[in-house]
Amino acid sequence: MSQEKEITLDFGKIKNIFKKQENKEKDETIIEVDKTRVVNIIKKYNILLLLLIPIFLSIFFRAYTYTLPITQDWAEQSVYQNIKAQIEAQINAESPSISPQAKSTLVDQRFQQVLIEERETIKVQIEAIQNQIRANYQDPEGRMYLPDIDTYFYHLQVQNLLDHGHVGDRIVNNKPYDDHSIAPIGREAVPNFNSYVIAGIYKFLDIFTSPTITQAMFIMPMLIAALSVIPTFFLARKIGGNAAGFFAATILAIATPFLGRSGAGFADTDVYNVFFPVLILWIFIEALTAKKQNNQIMLGTLAGVLTGLYSFVWIGWWYLLDFMLATIGLYALYLMYEHRKEIKTIYKTPRAKTLIFVGLSFFLLAGITSAFLGNFQSFYKAPISPLLVNTIQSAAKPNLWPNVYTTVAELNPINFTNLVNQLGGNFYLLIALGGIILTIITHRKGIGVFYSIFLILWFFGMAYTSTKGIRFLLLVVPPFAIAFGICLGILYEKGATWIASTIDLKKSIIKPIIIVLLLLLFIQPLQAADAMAKNQLPNFDDVWYNTLTKIKETTPEESILTSWWDFGHWFKAVADRRVTFDGASQNSPQAHWIGKALRSDEETAYGIIRMLDCGANQAFNKIDEQTNDTLKSVEIINEIILGDREKAKESLEERGIINIEEILNLTHCSPPPNYIIASEDMIGKSGVWTHFGGWDFKKAFIYQTVKTSSRIESIQIIQEELGYTQEQAFTVVNQVSQYEENEANNWVSPFIGYSDITGCSRVDNETLFCSNGAMINTTTNEVTLRLQSGEVIHPKKYSNGEISITYEDSPTEFGVGYNPNTNMAFFAETGMVDSLFAKMFFFEGKGLTKFELVDHQKGFNDFDIYVYKVKWEE
What we know:
The protein contains 38 helices and 19 strands. Among the domains are: 69-135, no CATH class; 151-218; 230-384 and 412-534, no CATH class; 697-748, no CATH class; 754-870, no CATH class. The protein has 874 residues and is of the alpha+beta class. Strands 13-12-11-10-9-17-16-14-15 form a nine-stranded mixed sheet, with no helix packed on it.
């Protein structure tokens, strides 16, 4: 069967597959299938049929996030456990002395009997519980919530597109502007390809029904993922035949790194990082293999336009351009070597001419398109962009502010072992490597060399890139899938031929057997896909919906919401309120200020939030313009935010700062209403926000100095700028110079948080014993801890929200908090026991005078959210 066979549909022939024939014995009309015609149809449309299977699998598993089938498993477990508990209680009453083993056997027997006898009743119970669980993830109209965080960023952009015709809340200087982010100043709203695609899907659905933006966002990733299957099929087919295309497309459709970021509702840009590379590369190869020069140029141009369009999708698009240019360059060297005897006229050879036409049309149109979309700078900087990738995990920025990207989970690096496991394990990696080797062996000349070059560079380049961050793992999936499919496809074709010649058996018999054996390799990936898809539950649920809709309905429109950045997009889209910072602005000074406010006392937090609500970080910027010294500017800000306006003015005057009134308007204005959200997830994240909140700018200065200067220069600079002695400077430089980035990050500011959060039980009328080991006397408020050695000590500090006790003789540096209302105790670093967050969350607002509790919601699995209003002074 020719690999270049054209796909055509002849509906006239399809309708004649079935014909009517009268059954004389039964005197009725039946449909008889013409087997010969069916076989012919299958042969003619085999490519279409082979494509439908991976497309179906792609859609099937991605739809899990809309149907949530795992809720049925939970409901079944709940009902079954309840039935077994009742049966066990009944057996205990009937036979108190029965042995545990005999009881277990009897429980199982009766349980199976109940399942049969009460089948319909149990089915109704399971369905009812499943509906209750599912309802937690559905809005009041019964529509599933979007599952991810960043999707709400695009939800707001799409809403603006439909309402205003642009992605911003308004137009400023002829550009869309986002008033919701970085309150109160806002920021430019940068258009994104993804928002236009979702809006387009919405408009299409609007022709037939009355859709919601959420519905369009559920469709988008499923649609793009399914479309990605098609070029993957044809790309692998070009090298290894139809079977290779089928296997490659199938493994791509169910690969868990891809599936995990493209389920229904995950309407982020990740899915395009599979779609665009496979589509562009397929079209480029079609251009190289096209026979007519016009087709070569047209296809090369199309590949270039799509590459430029990719720049409108993702900031890291340049990697594909670099990869394509490297592949073209190496292939050109191969052609030069192949025609080395006629090197001066090589440009006249067919393949060289084709490469020139296709390469130039691709490169020129990629540049023109990226320039048209405003990304020409990233186009011409593409060759050096790989050198900048490692800076994403630098502990501190050159301006001494912390780098939030070091703690973003999806940017955490992974080792090679984890990479292999994500791809299915060593055996599946070997198959993919086998595909690369077989490509090299079977395509040693001409355009086949291009196949080998692009597959080697693509696979190993993306494998290396994937280790730089979990999010980048997605990039290795297309080359892995194609190499995997090529291996199985070539083994299928060559294996059938070899076996047929060896044992004198027809290929028509051997091939189905080989297909069945190869399909067994997909059992594990299918099981992994099912498990991955089942466990993709929405992060957003009823407790967040109720909290944010209440804020929307009860607070002034000019209000600002403050919390850690993770859920900022939710706050903007659902509550329709401005936020201090969010997922699009997390790597900003606000991370330090909010982290510091959460871990500080009430007075300090009040001053920080007032400054942010008056002018974000502009006060620092104005001061720093005059001092040109980050250390000094931060010191001034920390000093002036604590007092009133007059005291701050005196401080600025003493330091010789000018434009004082302008600065004071950015720190001591009459702020808009502010609401702070303290949610249960922030306990687990406390190590992160305390890290940024406790950022030591002097240590960051030392780190940057050592990183960018010689040892002798570093010692001199640190002495001059920080007043260190020569010995002190020498010691710290030697220490810091040995640190890896993560060690330096922890040295500048340790990661501390809340731990051992447990309940307590009463020992007697006065004493509580907590599961974390704390003994609390509720009358005297004395707290003790018993060490493993048997020694009894005091923690450094104890607080119940209203009363705080410090034990100066304590050998520890941590404290204990306990809330009598919730009967929960916790451990924390001494300064955090009475921090703003501890007061807001663990102590439910006790002892706070400048922050008023206005809402408390308890959701699924007892997830708590507290909302406080800042009580601004009149």
